[in-house]
Amino acid sequence: MDEDDEPKKESLKDFLAKTPKTEIDWGAKATTTPTAVGTTADGATTTPAAVSAPRSRDRTGVRLCRLLIKTEKLADQDANEVQGMARKYNLGGFIQTGSPGMIVVEGLEFNCDIFMDNLERQKRTYVNIGKVSERSGRSFPMELTLLSGESAIGDFGKACESVGLKEFLESALNGN
């Protein structure tokens, strides 16, 4: 094969010039304001999860899992460990310390399952309360966000309601 027969390699600059532009900001860092509540154009009230962060990396149609987890009591130090583990599996969501401790994570279904398996191996007892899987974009922040303060319980409930886990949460809190 002669040199002339080989496909020509473009310079990186030429390649990028021909590549269509996107509006995706791959460097966007998700920030969370869990206590913020807003209103959409059609007058509907948004939950903290909907207001929380830009989700420019989402791909519509990806199968995501939302997993609700309960533990008897969750201290801040334990919450930090759970946040670190969730980060390893690219899971986002919310965590509420106290008694009972509640965690709701969102991510790829495979990652949620591995995360739950690892939690079940811990000394502390973690119980899978409910799981919802669907093809959709993210609803929660990209990182597991600690909810604290007087509004934490209400914000956590609104987040669970926004993704179809409300009945599971109510059942867990009522001891059923």
TrEMBL record:
Q: Where is the composition biased (Low complexity)?
A: 30-51
Question: Organism, per UniProt?
Answer: Fragilariopsis cylindrus CCMP1102
Q: What is the superkingdom listed in this entry's lineage? A: Eukaryota
What is the protein name given in its UniProt record? Uncharacterized protein
* Region annotation Disordered: where it falls in the sequence: 23-57
